[in-house]
Specification:
This is TPR-like protein. The protein has 39 helices and no strands. By secondary structure, it is mainly alpha-helical. Among the domains are: 87 residues; 82 residues, Alpha Horseshoe (Serine Threonine Protein Phosphatase 5, Tetratricopeptide repeat).
């Protein structure tokens, strides 16, 4: 058919209008086209039928107040579709087209048949499916020759209509084949673009993935959803966001299932194998979460008074569960998860479920102050939750029903109470609050939960209750209260052991309490039981070493110390030093410090200097940034599109082939299993990890003369503190966006400073006992430079001046220590001793009595000098009691305080 130039221009513009579904222009284009091309009557009437159907569908949706949001609840078994129209509304347009079909070209007739089929499917006529089949019976779909422009969109429309018809007839497998042909066509013709093409393509890809899930073919569904996602990147930003959210919901679930089971049902092609390894799946899940959140929030408003944004709750629960599945994450990932939950709180109203997720996420991130606020809010809402639940039917609710109603289960509430007890007790040292949470949890377990199902919760609730009682006993200022608190702690741990005899934690904490009570034989039995369950638990080895030293069996304690160190993943000569966690490293370092103290006890102060420098080197490794704390987050929704362009290679049929980043869950390991970061810090590979030189402070020397500043070769070099390090700059450089430090990081910095000061004070003590006072005072200066608020620094300075006979300066040093820690037992004992030696018995008794009743209740020296006070004042019975108790404490005193082994 030869068209005039005018007809060609009109046909081109007409097809462009059809591609955009610009119905208002159709009548005029049809009139002009027929005027300049008498054989174009079929195309003109085809377009007019499209207009009639499209407008009728729009009116039907408006009449029923139907929107695409109906798709938010789609399942593989139930897929929402727009309202059907009455056949009478479009019948006239259909008859006009059927009446002129024979006057058109064969090509125009085929495309007209596709539009007639599409029109029949849009009606609610009883014979609609038969009519569709009738119109399409002589049309090859897909055609042998693929057209271009709007005709390409009509081919896709025909395939989609055919698939939807087969689907309604129950011929699901054939329908999927038709939908998959759409996917192949679109991927093979990426330059074809039009609004109508996008619309029909979305229908086909969406329904293909859902039907494959209905058939249980998870691999095929993942492929279709990936294809949907890749095409969606080319669609308008606001196009069918509700359906996108549904796709991402099902895709995330399918990917999570694949990652959880490590089993893909179906034949994975060679090209796909790299996409289903755990690292790639983890990265893809993280990205899909971000797209899911973005699309869902775009169609979600803040709830009204009688509404629950349960879809948001379900999404956040899926994200949280997937995070657990993916495993340990870096600090950036943890922060982004918290931000994700905060965003969810802006789309919900006082949701206890969101608060629960927020609480656990904040604890994981280490932001304990905010976690406490979330905990308090959650427990307040939990009370309301109980009242709400009482108005609901008594039958057991499924998890999905709880999400829809935003009602927490008693198990969830109790798990928060248990974790709250751990947070208060172990992380914040707030005994009263920790005990309250543990008691509430145990009450809930007894009243509401099945004892067998809540066995784990009951174990931890009793364990944390024991920790809380022990903490209260350690902090008690009333001596009469302390025994009962320790007894309750022991009873709690014994109850925990009764519940779970095979759990090492309760045995370990029981041993700690028995050690604090100086019941050394029982403590040794308990800690051996802990090690029998978990031989790699360094705090248990450390406690056993201290218990043996309390029995004055120093050589055996030293040999056990060696055994325990070899059990640790932080046995640095055998590993890269980063295979264990930061807390494991701190436990390892603490045991090494105790080992140095034992070496001095067994072999003398000179021998104690030998391991000092190695301890400082170990300190730099233990308190160096962990690789897991570095790197870019996988979950940053703000950067997700940038990552798609730079970090992710998108292939047909797949969203991700990840390029791993240092410090994230995709950290590259060397062939030997060591991370690149770990290799960079290992001294064995020529790293420039130097230990900083000493920087002597002047504040301590201002108290008394410091002597020569000449440096001794035997003085260990200072380890890297939180504010000074020669670690590679890439590991320590500040991020572009300054974040508020977490409570956990602040606590770790404080511990790092305290440990470094302890190392210097250990050196200072050895030098003092060797009568090398200049070296000793310089070591104390280093400790003061690191942690000036540490009372032990000033206490050791006082000991040094006392050893030199300068009692006045020593007294000033002890006073400074007491200004920092008013109940410092060793300092108070020294003060009491000085009063006794000066003949001031009343002052000595007052100081020593206060000491033995408070934190110095287990100080042998304090009881000894108190006994001497009673002896000097002729109260011989009291004197005898004190001296005997002092002897008992001395006979059971460990080489270092038992608290250094507390995990």
């Amino acid at each position: 058919m030869n068209l005039t130039p005018k007809a060609q221009v009109i046909e081109r513009d007409f097809q462009n209008a059809r591609a955009k579904a610009n119905y208002t222009t159709f009548p005029e284009f049809a009139r002009r086209y027929v005027k300049h091309n008498k054989d174009g009557v079929v195309l003109a009437n085809t377009a007019l039928l499209e207009m009639t159907v499209g407008e009728a569908e729009a009116k039907a949706r408006k009449a029923e107040n139907w929107t695409q949001s109906a798709s938010l609840d789609d399942t593989p078994e139930s897929i929402a579709r727009s309202p059907l129209v009455s056949p009478g509304i479009i019948q006239e347009a259909i008859e006009k087209l059927e009446g002129v079909l024979t006057r058109g070209t064969e090509e125009h007739q085929e495309y007209a048949a596709i539009v007639l089929a599409r029109s029949a499917l849009a009606t609610d006529a009883p014979d609609r499916l038969q009519r569709v089949a009738h119109y399409l019976q002589n049309i090859q779909l897909p055609p042998a020759r693929i057209p271009m422009g709007y005709n390409f969109a009509l081919v896709v429309c025909g395939l989609t209509v055919k698939g939807m018809t087969l689907e309604e007839e129950g011929r699901i497998t054939e329908a999927i084949v038709s939908y998959d042909n759409v996917s192949l066509l679109v991927q093979s013709n990426p330059n074809e673009r039009s609004d109508e093409l996008v619309s029909w393509t979305e229908h086909a890809l969406y329904r293909a993935g859902m039907l494959k899930l209905r058939q249980g073919d998870q691999l095929a569904a993942i492929r279709s959803f990936r294809a949907y996602h890749n095409q969606a990147q080319l669609w308008p930003g606001q196009f069918r966001l509700a359906r996108r959210a549904t796709v991402y919901r099902h895709l995330a679930a399918a990917l999570s299932s694949s990652l959880k089971t490590h089993d893909i049902q179906g034949n994975v092609t060679t090209d796909e194998q790299s996409q289903f390894v755990p690292a790639a799946l983890s990265l893809e899940i993280a990205q899909i979460h971000a797209y899911w959140e973005d699309s869902l929030y775009a169609v979600t408003a803040f709830p009204k008074a009688d509404e629950k944004n349960w879809r948001v709750l379900g999404m956040v629960e899926q994200i949280v569960e997937d995070r657990k599945l993916i495993g340990p994450s870096n600090d950036a990932d943890k922060r982004v998860l918290v931000e994700t939950i905060y965003r969810a709180s802006q789309k919900t109203f006082q949701s206890p479920r969101i608060l629960r997720f927020l609480f656990f996420a904040l604890v994981e991130m280490g932001q304990y102050d905010e976690a406490v606020l979330a905990l308090k809010s959650y427990l307040d809402l939990a009370e309301i939750n109980l009242k709400v639940k009482s108005t609901v039917a008594e039958e057991v609710l499924t998890n999905e029903q709880r999400i829809r109603l935003d009602i927490e289960s008693e198990y969830d509430i109790t798990s928060v109470m248990v974790e709250g007890s751990r947070l208060y007790g172990k992380e914040l040292g707030q005994a009263t609050e920790a005990l309250a949470c543990a008691e509430k949890a145990l009450s809930n377990i007894q009243q509401y939960l099945d004892q067998e199902e809540a066995k784990e919760l009951s174990f931890y609730a009793n364990t944390y209750r024991g920790i809380a009682y022990g903490l209260q006993a350690a902090q008690a200022q009333e001596p009469e209260a302390r025994p009962s608190l320790y007894t309750k702690a022991i009873e709690s741990f014994e109850k925990a052991i009764e519940i779970a005899p095979g759990a090492y934690e309760a045995h370990y904490y029981l041993a700690v309490q028995q050690a604090e009570m100086r019941d050394v034989p029982k403590a040794i039995v308990s800690v051996k039981q802990s090690l029998g369950v978990n031989s790699a638990h360094i705090p248990s080895w450390h406690l056993l070493v201290l218990l043996l030293s309390a029995q004055k069996d120093y050589e055996r304690a030293l040999s056990i110390c060696t055994v325990g160190l070899k059990e640790s993943d932080w046995d640095l000569p055998q590993t890269d030093g980063f295979s264990a966690s930061q807390s494991d490293g701190e436990d390892y370092l603490a045991l090494r410090i105790t080992e140095a103290a034992l070496i001095e006890q067994v072999n003398g102060a000179e021998a104690a200097l030998e391991p000092q420098e190695a301890l400082f080197v170990l300190y730099t490794k233990v308190f160096a940034p962990e690789p897991s704390s570095l790197g870019e987050s996988l979950y940053d929704i703000q950067n997700i599109r940038r990552r798609d362009q730079s970090d992710i290679e998108i292939n047909t049929g797949s969203t991700v082939v990840g390029r791993p980043r240092a410090g994230s869950i995709l950290s590259v390991r060397s062939k030997s299993g060591a991370s690149d970061i770990g290799q960079g810090l290992s001294p064995s590979n020529g790293s420039n990890l130097d230990i900083p030189k000493a920087n002597y402070a002047s504040s301590i020397t201002s108290i008394g003369s410091s002597g020569s500043k000449k440096r001794s070769k035997l003085i260990p070099a200072a380890a890297a503190s939180s504010g000074s390090s020669t670690l590679p700059k890439s590991l320590l450089s500040a991020p572009a966006a300054v974040q508020r430090p977490t409570t956990k990081s602040v606590q770790r910095t404080s511990r790092a400073n305290k440990v470094l000061a302890t190392l210097w004070l250990l050196s200072a003590s050895a030098f003092r006992r060797l009568d090398r006072m200049e070296e000793s005072i310089r070591a104390i200066e280093e400790a003061e430079h690191i942690d000036a608020s540490n009372p032990d620094v000033w206490y050791n300075l006082g000991l040094l001046y006392a050893a030199q006979g300068d009692q006045e300066t020593a007294s000033v040093s002890f006073s400074k220590a007491l200004a920092l820690a008013p109940y410092h037992p060793a300092c108070l004992t020294r003060v009491g001793q000085s009063y006794l030696e000066a003949g001031s018995l009343e002052m000595a008794e007052s100081v020593l009595d206060t000491t033995t009743k408070s934190q110095g209740w287990n100080s042998a020296e304090a009881w000894f000098y108190l006994g001497k006070v009673f002896e000097a004042s002729d109260r011989l019975v009291r004197a005898k009691e004190c001296l005997w108790y002092a002897l008992e404490l001395e006979q059971s005193r460990p080489i270092r305080d038992f608290s250094v082994a507390l995990q």
